[in-house]
Amino acid sequence: MNVIKKSRISFSALAFLVVGLGVFMYTVYFQEEQLPVFNPTDFNPELVDGSLQAVSENHTVSDFELINQNGATITQADYENKVYVADFFFTRCPSICPIMTNNMEKLQQKFSEDEVVMLLSMSVTPELDSIPVLKEYADKYGAIASKWNITTGDKKHIYNLARQSYFAVVDEGDGGLQDFIHTPNFILVDRKKQIRGVYDGTKDQEIDRLIGDIEVLKRK
């Protein structure tokens, strides 16, 4: 009799475990599926380079080559199989950039022990934001290079990334001397280089939403 009872208890525990695991896996999958994959046609056309406005599928972020606060070359390979947040800033910005950078610092603290999650900040005034300037800025905000690259590089390359890869800015331009972009957007990119969310990097509620979406993607 005791053996039968024990068997029933064991079977019930196993069934409960299987059902619970199934619910968990479904929830993770369902939540991940609820995060959209952004293609050019999903954005306001003003945000999208004219050559890409009709693209409705398979958009991925272009490969990049930048220089970080330590003078190291940073490429897409450093973000391979990572979930990351990208933004565009400049060190002399007196308005939204300090708020955005503080929020990037919060993300760094939140995911400091998570190797899957990284951050990428790109200067929109690379001619002014030299490596020593970026290093001072990075130190001010406690940026850890293995987690958060604060970068400079070729201006045209950075502006093409903003306009043709991340769709972070509305205005058009050629990346030349007089060209200038300024945006509060944080862009969430998944392991497949797909854009999965766009957030206002100056608003606390948007940062909370971003954190929740990162949690979903990193489990996938």
From TrEMBL:
The keyword Disulfide bond is assigned to this record: yes
Taxonomy, superkingdom: Bacteria
Residue numbers binding Cu cation: C93, C97, H182
Disulfide bonds: C93-C97
Gene3D superfamilies assigned to the protein according to its UniProt record, in alphabetical order: Glutaredoxin (3.40.30.10)
GO terms of molecular function: metal ion binding
Residue ranges of domain Thioredoxin in the record: 55-219
Membrane-spanning ranges: 12-30
Keywords from the UniProt entry: Copper, Disulfide bond, Membrane, Metal-binding, Transmembrane, Transmembrane helix
Pfam families in alphabetical order: SCO1-SenC (PF02630)
Family: Belongs to the SCO1/2 family.
Name of the protein in question: SCO family protein
Organism the protein comes from: Aggregatimonas sangjinii
